[in-house]
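Late entry, evening session. Most of the bench is empty. Finally got around to the prediction I had been postponing all week. Sequence below, unchanged from the version circulated by S.P.
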Amino acid sequence: MMNSRLPYFLIAFAVILMAVYSSVFVVTERQQAVVVRFGQIQDVKTEPGLYFKLPFAFMDADRVQYVEDQALRFDLDNIRVQVSGGKFYEVDAFVVYRIQDPRRFRETVSGDRSSAEARLRTRLDSSLRRVYGLRGFESALSEERASMMREVRADLKTDAESLGLNIQDVRIRRTDLTQEVSQQTFDRMKAERLAEAELIRARGNEESQRRRAIADRQVVEIVADAQRDAEILRGEGEAERTRVFAEAFARDPSFFEFYRSMTAYSAAIASPETTLVISPDSEFFRFFNSSQGTPLPSAAPATPAAPATPATPAAN
């Protein structure tokens, strides 16, 4: 009799175990739980621990839907925005949020993160366009960037709260020129640099010509001064030479005449190829006609003026 009832006891025990197992659920530190009964929210568990619910969720009784209890993030990439100057830029941004009200989160988007993020992404897109449209490109690269992000966060706050979310942070990761604007900017910068280079080159050529003209003028002045000083010194030397010759002639006219003749002989026969065709009785050889080296008397004495130039020999 006992053996025949054993299977029923085992079945009942298994059913009880299944009921107990299906009525217990655990909420961890990174989770929140929403207990739903026949499509209606019965309870929300936000603290970690062990909880109970009605068993047999397959009969549409109590079901537990877990939602995250941690900071979540979604990104918005390659948003084409127009700034106040009329140019277009590409912007990357991201949003950090938490599910603050699991009940409302369940009621609005059925606890679906993708649906909630899709709605926030649309709002973020429009907010970025508005914020950038009121400013220039330089604002995103200056200290005003922080105020821009706060303004976008304020725009998202109302929509996020309606979804049971709390926006913790909004960040703009990148603000770049579009491909078309980048090429235009590059061409403009290139033209500006080329124009600046031409201006610098023109100024350099102008300065070079100015300095070259100054240098040429200084050279002419220096050469002219040198030539003037040389002529003055040469004149003074000639005057001193004439004075010395005059003093020498006054002291010993005969020796001076002899010296002038010897100088003339040296200049006349300096070259071995020189040939003189002169009469032996010529005045030129008057010192060779006396064994004592004194000149023969001449019809008229030599004039003791400036030193005479040596006689030019006759051509061969």
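Two things to note before I forget:
The CA atoms of residues 120 and 160 lie 7 Å apart.
The chain is about 50% helix and 20% strand.
Will write this up properly tomorrow.
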